[in-house]
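Thread title: Can someone regenerate the structure for this chain?

I was given the following input by a collaborator and told the matching structure tokens would be attached. They weren't. Posting the sequence so someone can regenerate them.
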Amino acid sequence: ADWVDADDAENVSEQNLKNHITYLASDDLQGRLAGSLGEKKAAEYIAKEFTKLKLKPFVGKDYIQPFEYSVKLNPHEDGSSVKINARNVLAYLDNKASKTIVIGAHYDHLGLNEHHNSTLMNSEGQIHNGADDNASGVSAVLELARQFSQNKTQEKANYVFALFSGEEDGLMGSKYMADHLPNGAKVDLMINLDMVGRLNKDKDLSVGGVGTSPIFPGYIHQYKPAGINLAIDSSGVGPSDHTSFYLKDIPVLFMFTGTHSDYHKPTDDTDKINFDGVRMITNYIFGLTNALSESEEIPFTKTKMSESKSVPKYKVTLGIMPSYADTKDGLHIDGVTDNRPGSNAGMMAGDVLTKIGKCEIKEVYSYMECLAKVNSGDELPVTVLRDGKEVILKVKF
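Best answer:
Regenerated them for you:
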């Protein structure tokens, strides 16, 4: 690639990435649950990095953007909801440019499973360190903040480095930021890194949001590091923070190295991180973003499923982690949460979901539409392919 410069500021430091992830995923931070002391310590760590880089606050007088929301702790009962006081950490690199690019990642995780988002049964009280999810994305954003702010050349865009909280409870921090942009602030592009720490041996990197601007396909292939295989998803909607910006008609890109058996479990630890992989992806985003910042404009395109402007409202859950890969033969299931309707009916990771009742499922979008039609208390046959054979399970929602 011709944009690599001998200038040290522009080269990703694997050691920096390692330091950030090791600290953020340490037991000392107790899993960074939104609103917890560990989340606050993580926010202070991020703010300290921003201070070292002499970045400006993006809103208000400092880097912290507080927000609050409620979370229901017993989804199955009318259960009480708890108020969470959380904080985004936002910094601004003002290059006096006409374009502004947000590079973001969520820094919160599951804590000691107080909000019941773990995929491991009976794991209350165990620290969920979230090294891949999402200390990995945070480390990349901090390293990009360093590269862009210490770079000798003046970039063609202003940058907002945004670390979100409340993602695990439903994209709360990114939604708050997207709803409260400063007066007159226009965001031209949002790049989201969520789980970029486990690049596999085939070097498969998922890039979402590719359909949200007509110029993306050319750029993402052109700047891709040698040896990396891109799995392209065109949709602007996905299970992470870019969705909040896409719904404001902002082009988005979403980098993701895929789920794994440690997803949302206490075993998502630093020793499983592929640091060379995180370095490659950070490098990729540095080159890609620089190139995009020089394009005339980054036009926005709506992608499928967005006519209603909102994700369908579900009254029920299956408790599965869907694969967001672009498949046509059904919804591939990457993980199953214990004690939810799916696992109670015998669903397993690796199953391919093809029908809920008579409603046919080809991929994640038709799955969302089928799920939105189900009411609490319904009992339905659910069809899955397991090792190529059709299996019908009875699910009580």
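The chain has a mean pLDDT of 89.
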